[in-house]
Design brief:
The complex is a heterodimer.
Chain A (H helix, E strand, L loop, with lengths): L5 E10 L2 E11 L4 E6 L5 H8 L7 E6 L2 E3 L4 H6 L2 E4 L11 H6 L8 H19 L14 H14 L4 E5 L7 H16 L3 E6 L2 H7 L2 E6 L2 E7 L5 H9 L17 E11 L5 E11 L3 E5 L6 H8 L6 E6 L2 E2 L9 H6 L2 E4 L3 H5 L6 H4 L11 E2 L2 E2 L1 H14 L16 H13 L5 E5 L7 H16 L3 E5 L3 H7 L2 E6 L2 E6 L6 H8 L8
Parallel strand pairs in A: 3-8, 3-9, 6-7, 7-8, 13-20, 13-21, 16-19, 19-20
Antiparallel strand pairs in A: 1-2, 1-4, 4-5, 9-10, 11-12, 11-14, 14-15, 17-18, 21-22
Chain B lengths: L5 H26 L4 H13 L2 H26 L7 H18 L5 H30 L3 H23 L22 H5 L15 H18 L1 H11 L1 H7 L3 H18 L1 H9 L10 H11 L4 H24 L4 H17 L1 H19 L1
Classes of the chains: A alpha/beta, B mainly alpha.
Chain lengths: ~500, ~375
């Protein structure tokens, strides 16, 4: 039996009353890829932060290569051969690749010798792991996939033998993700140990040798990937059986509700983000917009939701919608029966410091039903909130709790309840399940489909292809402000959409 | 989960900050060779030991309630109005014009008119920085503080060149007519058999200040405008999403804030001086910032904090009068209170939060 590269024994950590990790033990064999999967808040990130020296465990031991190791800070983690690639890269944008790699690991006060030495070593590393990047390009000149390679190279340059990747594919196109997994396999072949943290079942199945499942701070199972299935993993994550695909009848599209023609959006910096798109959404259908984040989808939603001006023409129920000026704000949109579940519920959809009952009025606070003379009718509002909390199973069912004290899934339920219960003609939905646990995803998807079945139009924007596939009746792919093509979900596959998302024109794909 | 109970945030932190400020002040007094215990006794007896002392304490507190509320309202929209000083000066100008140039039959009508004028002038002075912030993005902190200087210079000009009575060398208006004299607490309380010092300046404006606290509370927590102000203050992108116009909220909030600061003039100009003099505000606009910080931007907290600063002002004046503790030291004590309650809030907050977390863990 080989000595495990990493062994955690009985790790526990709590933050106040919240126990983030409960008596967790894992053992990862050297030269393998080990997945850690779990819902948001299951304690994955806490566990890895302990391993990387950001937090100190309340109890438990860390053994590396058969030796008990104390990791009080990240320097100690690096010294123990642990490298971490964060979800949000820690790179200096206006430094070159080479400078970023050396940063924090310079030898002595003069930079030139360090850089020369690093250049040589970098070449060797690139050779060895087939991780090619141009060392003299600035970080802001290279793509996200390349930036991630720089992060990996940074860790390898610091002699990492154990590499931890936290949600590495969140910002990548499917093709870039595939490349990443090829790199990980290559690293594995060279004897590195890799821990992959993700909430995506597909990646676990594709890339890992063994997988540990976490739920509510506990390690519920560790299994060989080849001996499990996505369904079983999902059940282990949530603690009950879940439907991974939404059960829905075929759409019966009616008359056009939303008609967009030649829409153009220029942002505050003067950059054109949406470059003349045409799109129609009909009653009783869900149109999904796929694309890598930052290709104009967010701006499209914001224009429709009254959050930014645009040019072109949008008609709702056949009547034109103002695209700038005071008649184009969020209030005007709501008056036209457009409801909006925004992409960022914490910064847009909710006021985190407000009570749940104040948030249930957010955006609709001018509704006459919530007024009593010159004052707001808080009693009516609270009654309305109780009703919505019950109907949407928001937990805890406490109208007085501040939004920030709900979990991500329950925050999203509050937003979805508020918007769907308005019975809108058009529902805009941005990233409806980002940071939402699987149980709540199922519920939110069902609500969206139910609204569709009532004959309402729904425009969905999501960077999760799985979500696009399972919800949409029609898929439009956006790249660089253009719609690259529209597809029906049963007539396309991830590969084709991936090409469209990467800007390869529809016909060539 | 909140890090600690609300009462700790609202009561305990200001209290501990205050105690720390008091300890440091005591050390400073010791350092210059005076007796801190005697000094505290003198402050308490001077500010609270007689109706005369109370009359001054409440008079100062009235000023601070108005300027504190002004800052607090702006805080709710995450606007830092440090122009209370200038807005209160302009409010004084409005009050003076109303009282001097219109013959009033009775003080009550005059008071209503003076309130209106004070609010309009204060709001007008806040309107320009508000517009610049909302439309041009000029930072409100910079513009409001600059407007304090402009207000002082403008008032100087008005008093020296326009409103000074002929033949007078004093840059001040003439005395307001007797008809607009506001009843002092002595005059208000005498009919119901309570004797209150005749000499103290506290007047009917104190009641207006209490009323203002209730109005501001209702505005912020019970009206739609208050809802929008708070929403905007917590999240600008959230406001945009909800269709709450940032321009409108910025301007309206600053108008309300300026109006409240201006309203202070019914106390110091109409109630006490009964004429407009240079520097009539005596820094109350700045004290308002500390009052709002310490009062957690809540009208009730502002009221309590205003009382505290009223006490410090009056007690400090007594101290300077009766001991060899110099006038400047009073400023030091007040500054320490401001420093601890306002700026060093987190210094007390962090260890307290840790304490409460570990207490909760122990009981869990």
């Amino acid at each position: 039996m080989t000595v495990p590269a990493i062994e955690l024994k009985g790790i526990s950590k709590s933050f106040g009353p919240v126990q983030a990790n409960k008596n967790i033990s894992i053992s990862v064999a050297p030269g393998t890829i080990h997945g850690i999967i779990g819902e948001n808040g299951a304690g994955k990130s806490t566990l890895m932060s302990i391993l990387y020296g950001f937090y100190k465990a309340d109890a438990g031991e860390i053994w590396i290569n058969g030796e008990k190791t104390e990791i009080p800070d990240s320097q100690a983690a690096i010294a123990a051969g642990i490298g971490m690639v964060f979800q949000h890269f820690k790179l200096v944008e206006n430094f070159t690749v080479l400078e970023n790699i050396v940063l924090g690991a310079e030898d002595g006060g003069l930079l030139a010798p360090s850089l020369a030495k690093a250049r040589k070593e970098l070449e060797d590393l690139e050779e060895e792991y087939e991780l090619f990047v141009d060392p003299d390009k600035r970080i802001d000149e290279i793509g996200v996939g390349m930036q991630q390679r720089v992060e990996i190279l940074k860790a390898l340059y610091r002699k990492a033998e154990i590499l931890i990747l936290d949600e590495p594919t969140g910002v990548l196109t499917p093709a870039e993700a595939d490349q990443l997994f090829r790199i990980l396999h290559r690293l594995k072949e060279e004897g590195k140990t890799i821990i992959l943290i993700t909430h995506k079942l597909r990646e676990i199945m594709e890339a890992t040798d063994t997988v540990s499942v976490m739920r509510r701070g506990e390690m519920t199972a560790t299994v060989k990937t080849s001996e499990t299935s996505p369904e079983q993993l999902a059940e282990l994550m949530v603690g009950r059986k879940v439907l991974l695909r939404v059960d829905k009848a075929p759409a019966k599209p009616g008359k056009p509700i939303l008609e967009i023609e030649n829409l153009r959006v220029t942002d505050e910096a003067g950059v054109e983000r949406v470059k003349g798109i045409d799109l129609t959404v009909r009653a009783g259908e869900i149109v999904g917009i796929a694309g890598v984040a930052g290709n104009g989808q967010s701006e499209l939603l914001e224009v429709l939701g009254g959050m930014r001006p645009a040019t072109g023409s949008i008609r709702l129920n056949g009547e034109s919608l103002p695209l700038s000026g005071p008649g184009a704000d969020g209030q005007a949109r709501r008056a036209r029966h457009i409801a909006h579940v925004p992409e960022d519920r914490q910064r847009e959809g909710l006021i985190m410091e407000f009570h749940a009952w104040e948030n249930v009025a957010f955006g609709y606070h001018r509704d006459p039903a919530y007024q009593r003379g010159i004052f707001m009718d808080n009693a009516a509002l609270r009654a309305d909130t109780e009703r919505k909390i019950e109907k949407f199973d928001v937990r805890p069912a406490d109208a007085w709790l501040a939004a920030k004290n709900f979990s991500g899934g329950n925050q999203q339920k509050i937003v979805v309840a508020r918007e769907i219960e308005r019975n809108p003609d058009l529902l805009l939905v941005g990233q409806p399940t980002r940071g939402v646990d699987i149980g709540a995803i199922e519920f939110i998807h069902k609500q969206i489909v139910a609204l569709r079945d009532q004959g309402k139009a729904i425009l969905l924007v999501s960077v999760e292809l799985e979500e696009i596939f399972s919800l949409s009746d029609r898929i439009a792919v956006m790249f660089d402000g253009h719609i690259m093509g529209e597809r029906l979900p049963h007539e396309t596959d991830e590969r084709e959409l991936g090409l469209l998302m990467a800007g390869v024109a529809g016909e060539a794909a | 989960m909140d890090k600690m109970p609300k009462w700790a945030d609202v009561v305990l932190i200001p209290l501990i900050s205050l105690i720390l400020a008091a300890i440091l002040s005591a050390l400073v007094i010791l350092g210059i060779g005076e007796d801190p215990v005697a000094a505290v006794k003198l402050m308490v007896s001077g500010a609270l030991g007689s109706t005369y002392g109370w009359g001054y304490t409440l008079y100062y507190a009235t000023n601070f309630v108005f300027t504190g509320l002004a800052v607090a309202v702006a805080f709710h929209a995450r606007l830092f109005n440090i122009g209370g000083e200038g807005q209160a000066m302009l409010g004084g100008l409005g009050v003076a014009m109303v009282c001097l140039y219109v013959p009033w039959p009775h003080w009550s009508i005059a008071l209503l008119a003076a309130m209106a004028a004070a609010m309009v002038f204060g709001a007008a002075w806040a309107a320009i920085p508000a517009y610049l912030q909302a439309k041009r993005g000029s930072h409100i902190v910079i513009t409001t503080i600059m407007f304090n200087f402009i207000a002082a210079a403008f008032l100087n000009y008005m008093l020296v060149n326009v409103m000074r009575p002929e033949g007078s060398m004093d840059p001040a208006t003439e005395r307001f007519p007797e008809a607009v004299h506001l009843p002092t607490l002595h005059e208000l309380l005498a009919p119901i058999g309570i004797s209150f010092s005749k000499a103290a300046p506290a007047n009917v404006s104190f009641l207006v200040a209490i009323l203002a606290c209730f109005v501001v509370w209702a505005l912020i927590w019970r009206t739609r405008l208050g809802y929008e102000i708070r929403a905007y203050g917590h999240s600008e992108t959230g406001a945009l999403y909800a269709g709450i116009s940032p321009v409108r909220i910025t301007i309206v909030t600053m108008l309300i804030s300026g109006a409240l600061a201006g309203l202070m003039a019914i106390n110091n100009v109409m109630g006490e001086a009964e004429r407009l003099v240079l520097n009539s505000t005596e820094g109350a606009g700045f004290i308002g910032i500390a009052v709002a910080l310490m009062g957690r931007s809540h009208p009730f907290g502002v009221f309590l904090a205003a009382l505290l600063f009223g006490f410090l002002y009056q007690g400090g004046a007594e101290l300077a009068l009766w001991t060899s503790i110099p006038r400047e030291l009073i400023v030091v004590i007040q500054a320490l209170v401001i420093l601890f309650t306002g700026a060093l809030d987190n210094m007390v907050r962090m260890p307290l939060e840790k304490l409460f977390l570990s207490l909760r863990k122990g009981s869990a």
